[in-house]
Structure formats: structure tokens, C-alpha cells
Write a structure and sequence with these properties.
The protein is mostly helical. Helices cover 75% and strands 0% of the residues. It has five helices and no strands. Helix 3 packs antiparallel against helix 4, helix 3 crosses helix 5 and helix 4 runs antiparallel to helix 5. The radius of gyration is 16 Å and the shape is globular.
Length: 124
């Protein structure tokens, strides 16, 4: 229960990513044409997720200095979530497919979220 209390923002961000990753958007008729919009969205989702997980981990005073937990939660979890969602999408959704470039955007987003959090933490 303590984990839920300390990491509720991370859990919420993860659930939002899962909904967006597995939702069907066939109802949307007009989507503005932006080059690489899908990759930008992947980048933003995973950079925000990583930032939020790192923030929650930073505020979890009991676990803040446990390096293994930091690596597991803040880096390994977002990377693996990105890979697993890409692999599972074609299995559960017709018309969706795995894309290496989506996974790459996810991974770059994880690194960006980590970097942004680290820079902000150093400034404060």
C-alpha cells in the first residue's frame, strides 16, 4: 500500500500510456498532418513517464538511495514498457503493428526524461 501512495503518479502515467497504446482511434476523422507526429508522441509519453517515476522515487525518502531500485524503476521499467507495448500491439489490435522506430522514440524519451530530471535536480 505504501508503494501505491508513493508512486501513484507513476502508476497513473503508466495507465495513461497503456490506454493510449492500446486504444483504437478509428473514430477520429481528421487528424492534422504533422510529420513524425507518432514518434513525437512516443517520445513525449516516455520522457514524461521517466520524469514522473524519477520524481516519485526522489520523494520516496526510504528508497531514494537504493541504487538498484532507482535503476529498476526509473530506467529499466520505462524501457521495458516501451518494448512490451510495441510487441503486444499487433497481437491485440488489428491494423496496428510493431515499429522499431516507435521503440527507438520511446528509448530516446526515457533518456530525455532522465536527463531533464537530472538537470533540474542539479539546479535545485
Amino acid at each position: 500500500m505504501k508503494f501505491l501512495k508513493n508512486y501513484w503518479k507513476s502508476i497513473l502515467a503508466t495507465l495513461i500510456i497503456l490506454v493510449l497504446s492500446f486504444a483504437r482511434f478509428s473514430e477520429i476523422k481528421e487528424i492534422p498532418k504533422v510529420d513524425y507526429l507518432d514518434k513525437i508522441i512516443h517520445f513525449l509519453m516516455y520522457s514524461v513517464l521517466t520524469f514522473v517515476v524519477m520524481l516519485d522515487n526522489f520523494h520516496d525518502v526510504q528508497n531514494r538511495n537504493k541504487r538498484w531500485l532507482f535503476l529498476l524503476l526509473c530506467l529499466f521499467f520505462p524501457f521495458m514498457l516501451g518494448i512490451v507495448t510495441e510487441v503486444l500491439q499487433p497481437l491485440f489490435l488489428n491494423g496496428r503493428y510493431s515499429d522499431v522506430y516507435d521503440s527507438l522514440s520511446n528509448a530516446i524519451g526515457v533518456l530525455a526524461g532522465w536527463g531533464i530530471f537530472t538537470l533540474i535536480k542539479l539546479k535545485l
